[in-house]
Amino acid sequence: MMDGHSKDVNVLEPLRSVQNSESSVPSGLAAIDPQALNIHSAPLKVFRPAGFWRRFLASMIDGMFVSVVVFPVTLVVNIAGMYFLTPPSPEQAIAVTAALGVFNFLFQLALTMIYAGWFLSRKGATPGKMALKLRVYNSETSVNVSFWSGALRETVGKLLSGLTLGIGFIMAGLRSDKRALHDLLFDTRVVYMEN
Asked: What is the pLDDT of residues 112-128, one digit of tens each?
């Protein structure tokens, strides 16, 4: 440290001398600004665990997005099913109704899995979470979850959180790290990005 500056400045000293010299300098080197290379000048993003109500509202928004597709499709399928499959007996009517109910459930489940899996693996958040500045990431690696992890977290994980009489969801409001049961099961964290 010849001039009293830190190591970072000494590493950049050859670039400064090249920029300041009056000799012919290759255009690629002359365009480099040594101050732009200082990685410590970027502001750090602040993340804090997302609370219960913000997460709840994000889930409601996501539910509305999924319902926009699910409702019209299941309505048309149910009307068509009852119209074209007019059963001659009450027993057959029950069977048709049950089959349509199974279709509705499986269609909504598949659509939710695709919606959540795609958005969580690609964007780190579903549209509802993005609207509220939330991000879901793997707590071990701090990267986006995989497609299947996101899809199963939002379906199977949340189903299990609900089957505990809602305690699995309430955990997000009671724990200091704000993790719900489905976060613990799928090793995820939900954070609020303040900036």
From this structure: 999 999 999 999 999 99
Evaluate whether 151 touches 114 at the Cβ level (below 8 Å): yes
pLDDT at 43: 52
Q: How do the domains of the chain map onto residue ranges?
A: 7-41, 47-65+109-193
Helices H / strands E in the chain, number of each: 9, 3
Burial bucket for residue 120 (CB in 10 Å: 0-12, 13-18, 19+) = buried
Tokens of 104: 């509705």
DSSP string, 57-113: HHHHHHHHHHHHHHHHHHHHHHHHHHHHT--SSHHHHHHHHHHHHHHHHHHHHHHHH
Per-residue model confidence as pLDDT tens digits over 65-102? 999 999 999 999 888 887 777 767 778 778 888 888 99
SS3 121: helix
Rounded to a whole number, what is the largest CA-CA distance in the chain?
Answer: 97
35 pLDDT higher than 60? no
Q: Whole-angstrom Cα distance, residue 174 to residue 101?
A: 36
